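Homework help board

Subject: predicted structure for assignment chain

Our instructor gave us this sequence and asked us to write out the predicted structure in token form, then describe one feature. I got the tokens but I'm not sure how to describe them. Can anyone check?
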Amino acid sequence: MVERKKSVALIARAVCATLLIGGGGRAGSASAQMSAGRFGAQSVLERTRPDYDPIGLRLGTFTILPSLDANTGYDSNVRALQSPVLDDLIFTLRPAVVARSNWSRNAVTVRASSDIQRFVDRPVENAEQYQIGADGRFDIGSRTHLVADARVGRLIEARGSTGDTALDGEPVNFMDYHFGTGADHDFGPLLTRASFTFDEFRYGDRKAAGGRKVDNSQRNYRSILGDIQFTLPVAPAAGVFVRGTVNTADYINEPAGPSGDLDKL
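My token output:
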């Protein structure tokens, strides 16, 4: 078994430009957007900071927030292995754009971002990642709220992670397809929430050492999550709740290896 070793990464930020008007944004999710109803709790990172928020570009009823982040860094163990230990200098470019609606009611946000890495001595580690997605909140009266989010992206499994099996070639890449939706309704003494999330991951072929093609389709899988929650407030910012969750995860293709009933093996 190949032993993994943590790398020492020294990152020096060369450029961090928001074009004076920019500012990225964290991708939303249906579960994260669910209205807090009468609780209204917000984390420190979610609070608005008017004095520091980017101005953005107004385009109709939307505000456009472009950003550009460029880094250079040194990694003493690029592949996070015990042996061989390979170091390299890395250049990273992260362009992004966010479009947010300025409506008095309801809200829609569209995001697109990319992460481009270039290695000086080990071009096999070069990687391009990208994501595009949108999320929205729709108010039906003052007591009912709907949320939805969707995204698609091409991602790379990080070296040293559990899924990193590309020890003899380029990193493993995969497509991430996500959709989520949810709703909440305030019945007065009782707050009800329900959500549904669908994720599908499809792994691409890669080139191993010597140009050999490696098929990763047996790793493709999808996950479905549904839950419902009933909350009874007992204080202005506290409550007791009951929650039920259903979760399924299945491989799309038959995994490689012996077939048949495992109970008979």
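Reply (TA_rk): Your tokens look well-formed. For the description, you could write something like this. The two ends are 25 Å apart (CA to CA). That's the kind of observation they're looking for.
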